[in-house]
Write a structure and sequence with these properties.
This protein is of the alpha/beta class and about 450 residues long. The chain has helices spanning about 30-40, 55-65, 100-110, 135-140, 175-185, 205-210, 245-260, 280-285, 325, 330-340, 360-370, 405-415, 435-449, and strands at about 5-10, 15-20, 45-50, 70-75, 80, 95, 120, 145, 155-160, 170, 190-195, 215-220, 225-230, 240, 265-270, 290-300, 300-310, 315-320, 340-345, 375, 380-385, 390-395, 395-400, 415-420, 420-425. The structure holds shikimate-3-phosphate.
Length: about 450
């Protein structure tokens, strides 16, 4: 079922239940993109389970199919990929449409940098405004060429080359998408390419390559930076990949359980990658009741089950160094801060301006609209929380094609005296298709128990 384009969010209490993949917790979006891409490159068949069913991942799958990769859908969350044992992609007939998916756009640039094809990619109005120079610069150093708009945005033509030269590159912007694009180009470049990452960003590509026994090496430098060496032209064997639950999606459920009275929600099989689970330790610092259980490992990724219940929230101060580990979580963290007693400050949010919308501005505007006094100072967001009482509500929020803004303000409406109307919610489909179903389940269980 498609998410309706307008949602009304009502005050709730007693959110109770167990959320896992069977109920619609999505597979991790970042891991899903990478599982499809590395499965396409592997030698042999990859069985993927737990794949994210949102539109963003679907655009990666469609792009790979247009490039000649054989992918069989066995169920909404499982795929069998016949790997190409390398990069022998075919020229697609039509330009590739990538919807709203920034990860697909950046990773495809890296994947196709070493293919001597001319591939045009384009996206929706939001994706067409997102910066691409950050991937074009290092990939041009390898020897790939691009044609883009004067603003270096989509539509973009990738003119790959089979004669790339390895690079030695210090990543100037903390971005896992950029790092992953470089790794994908390096994998099909003869020799050793080196990346220096000053601030660690999510490392799913690296972990998956280690799981697949691909030669990738890490050195922690005296400066505290991470050096990543990638050997090119190494054929690797396929292995089955199980995708854990998405912690960025689970964060909405966790904050809902915190702010709604008499609630306890268990979330199972969640990625507990330390570069993704930071949101839960911040929520704990804010006073959240979160139990963490069954920490385990699968396919080189840590996984855990958590239980979150109604909590009394303190404000928090978040430093710039924390931004990469919380990059997608600021919208929902802002809602937790709105219901904390006191002032929260999130520092160093420049990158939020380049997401599916200008999130810094969207949070500032919509929190103020909801009666939460919020300021932007330099690149910091300052939120004066009102404590555990509900907001007045009765407002209309425009999600502006940004799934995380839509979901965050839906959660805010769960503690509003008068419903919040959220417009433009079909974008939730890009990452979390069963978002509404999950909240129906959690409140339904209350009605029947
Ligand atoms: C992602 C990395 C992050 C994140 C995005 C997914 C990825 O972007 O915001 O939703 O899968 O690599 P940046 O690495 O560009 O910050």
């Amino acid at each position: 079922m498609k998410t309706p384009n307008t949602l009304t969010s009502f005050r709730q209490s007693h959110l109770n239940g167990v959320i896992n993949a069977e109920i619609g917790l999505p597979g991790d979006k970042s891991v899903s993109h990478r599982a499809l891409i590395l499965g396409a490159l592997a030698h042999g068949n990859t069985q993927i389970t737990g794949l994210n069913t949102g539109e963003d991942v679907e655009y990666t799958e469609l792009a790979l199919k247009s490039l000649g990769v054989d992918i069989i859908q066995q169920s909404p969350t499982s795929r069998l990929i016949h790997g190409k044992s390398g990069w022998n992609f075919k020229q697609p007939i039509n330009p590739l449409y990538l919807g709203n998916s920034g990860t697909t756009a950046r990773l495809l640039c890296g994947l196709l940098a070493s293919s001597p094809l001319n591939i045009q990619v384009y996206g929706d109005s939001s994706l067409s405004q997102r910066p691409m120079r950050r991937v074009m610069t290092p990939l041009t150093e390898f020897g790939c060429q691009f044609e883009a708009t004067p603003e270096n945005t989509l539509p973009l033509t990738i003119k790959g080359s089979s004669k790339l030269e390895p690079i030695d590159y210090v990543i100037p912007v903390a971005s896992s998408q950029v790092k992953s694009a470089i790794i994908l180009a390096a994998m099909n470049t003869k020799g050793i390419s080196r990346i220096i990452e000053p601030i660690k960003t999510r490392d799913h590509t690296e972990r998956m390559l280690q799981y697949l026994d691909y030669p990738i090496h890490f050195t922690l430098l005296e400066s505290g930076h991470t050096q990543i060496d990638i050997e090119g032209k190494h054929v690797f064997n396929a292995k089955d990949i199980s995708v854990p639950g998405d912690p960025s999606a689970a964060a909405y459920i966790a904050v809902a359980a915190m702010i709604c009275p008499y609630s306890t929600v268990r979330i199972e099989n969640l990625s507990w990658n330390p570069l993704r689970s930071r949101i839960f330790s911040i929520l704990q610092e804010m006073g959240a009741n979160i139990k963490i259980e069954n920490i385990r490992n699968e396919c080189f990724e840590p996984i855990a089950d958590i239980e979150v219940s109604t909590s009394y929230n303190r404000p928090c101060i978040i430093k710039s160094e924390d931004v990469p580990a919380l990059i997608d979580e600021y919208p929902i963290l802002s809602i937790a801060a709105a219901f904390a007693e006191g002032t929260s400050v999130f520092h160093g949010l420049r990158e939020l301006r380049y997401k599916e919308s200008d999130r810094l501005n969207a949070l500032y505007r919509n929190l103020n609209l909801c009666g939460i006094e919020t300021h932007i100072q330099d690149e910091s967001l300052i939120i004066n929380g009102i404590g555990p009482k509900p907001i007045f509500g009765g407002k209309t929020i425009n999600a502006g094609k940004d799934h995380r803004i839509a979901m965050a303000f839906y959660i805010m409406g769960l503690s509003a005296r008068n419903p919040l109307i959220i417009q433009g919610t079909d974008c939730i489909q890009s990452s979390f298709p069963h978002f509404i179903k999950i909240f129906d389940e959690l409140s339904y269980l209350r009605a029947v128990s």
